[in-house]
Each structure stands twice: as C-alpha cells, then as structure tokens.
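Side project, low priority. Logging it here so it doesn't get lost.
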Amino acid sequence: MSEKEAVVRERAARPVRLGPKSVAVLLLTGAVGVVAFGWPLLADTGSGLAHAQDAPWLFAALLPLLVAVVVATISESGMDAKAVAMLGVLAAVGAALRPLGAGTAGLEPMFFLMVLSGRVLGPGFGFVLGSVTMFASALLTGGVGPWMPFQMLSMGWFTMGAGLLPGADRLRGRVEQAMLAAYGCAAAFAYGVVMNLQGWPLITGLGSGISFDGDDPLRENLARFLAYYVTTSLGWDLGRAVLTVVLTLTLGPTLLRALRRATRRAAFDARAVFGEPEEAGKQPGEQAGKRPGKQHGKQARKRPGKQPGKQPGKRPEGTAPGSP
C-alpha cells in the first residue's frame, strides 16, 4: 500500500460523533463537576463541611451520568459492542500505565494515552474513557478515597478536551503532533490546578499568604490559591507535562495510526441499512412471480432452432420437389 493510500485510509477514521443527547448529558455532567469543585470557595469556614462528606454523593451522581453518556453516544453515533470493548481495553492499558510513574516527580505516562485516545475517538468517548480509566487505576493502586470522584471528573475533562481539538479529520503529521503535545502540556498543568482546588479550601494550618479565608472575597482567595499552587505543586505538575510532551512526540505517530486503524475496522460511524427481504437479489424490471431465465412473450413449448414464420411441411419457393 502506497503512502498516499495510507493517508487516505487514515483520514477515513473519524471520531465518534456527538448528538444533541450526548451534548446535553456532557453539559449536565460538567455543571455537576463545577459545583462539586467550586462550592467550598463559597462556603463559610465554620460550616464544618468537607469533601469527605460530599464525595460519596458526587460518586453516586457521577456513575449514572457516565452510563447516560455511553447510552446517548451509542444511540446517536452507531457505536456497538466493538466500541465498548475498545473502551475496556484502553481503560485497562491506562490503568496499568499509571502505577509505572506515580510517586516519582509526578511522572504519569497514562496522560499521553488519554490525549491520543481522546483525539481519535472524540469528546464523548474520551470523557467516558478518562473517567473509567481513573476509576480502574484507583482500584488497582488502592487509591480509593474522597478524591477519587474528583479525579474521575478531571481526567474525563482532560481526555474530552483532546477530542474537541480542531482538525480531527484533516490535520495529520507534524502539525497534529505539535498541537497534541502543546495541549498535553497545558492540560497536564490544568489537571493539577483543578485537583489542588478540590482540597485547598479545606486544608488547615497553612500560612496566611496561601491559605483559604472564607471571610475574604473570592478574588483574594483565588490569588492565595495561585500562590499555594506555585509553592506546593508546580514542580510536580512540570514532570507530568514534560513526560506527556515527550511521549506524544515520540510514540504518538505510531499509536495514532494504530488507534485510527482500529476505529476504521470497528466502523463506529457506519449505520446498518436493511432492505425489504423480497427485493433482495431481484434484477430491475423482474416480476415477483416470474422465474429467472424466461423471456417475456415466448412460449415454453416452442422448440429451439425453428425460425419464426416457417410452417411444418412447407418448402421454400423455388425449391424443386424431392430436393433436399
């Protein structure tokens, strides 16, 4: 297969389309996530509330929303058992990659896989993949706690963002790799910022310049949070961002081709078309009760080889009697 044919076949693999139902469910999930992350910034410091109390409720709300995203995407884009199987395979691979670098300067190789998967498979599939992968990795590493639903939401947004990047069916080569690497770098820092925001308002014992104060306005608290992030987490997130960029630029082209080939063979966007059973295999103009091979107007008892208009026993004109 020539290089031109390979490019054409690669471009034929399109991300899973989003319909109105999928968009509505994703917007609802995003709204729930924003409220879950942001309410401590508006709560009183003496309220006594903490994510340890709201995490079970968020997890209970998140699971049916994830199922709703999957069901809406299946009903609107033609996904089938192959797509669900690919979701399970990629989630298992991502969950297995996470322990390889966790705890070592923020190096987490699963992030580059989420970037590439979201790019190829689209935002809806990507959101579900990111959330399920984080859930599976938490079970694998024993990282189940009040932070787990927030990690699922953050990773879902991380992967969904890769699916929302422009040029999914036309950008290829180095331009696409550079765009994915830049997104992976920025999104790796954004993931760290969001996850720090989840717990920062509830942490006590910090210095006055970086701690949350419920009596101060939101703008001043956000300035303190920025100082807190730069002081405590920027270096950790830098390792994640650098590793994501390096793996995206080195392993990205090969993995993108493999994912697009799998998507094309699974034919996520192909819709089955069923015709009438009695019309199948029928030639144009052929009548329903007519047997094939028989021409219209010919009699079945007519013997082959006899010319039309010739009567039995009649000799042609000009032929002498007794001549052969």
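Brief comment: The two ends are 68 Å apart (CA to CA).
Revisit when time allows.
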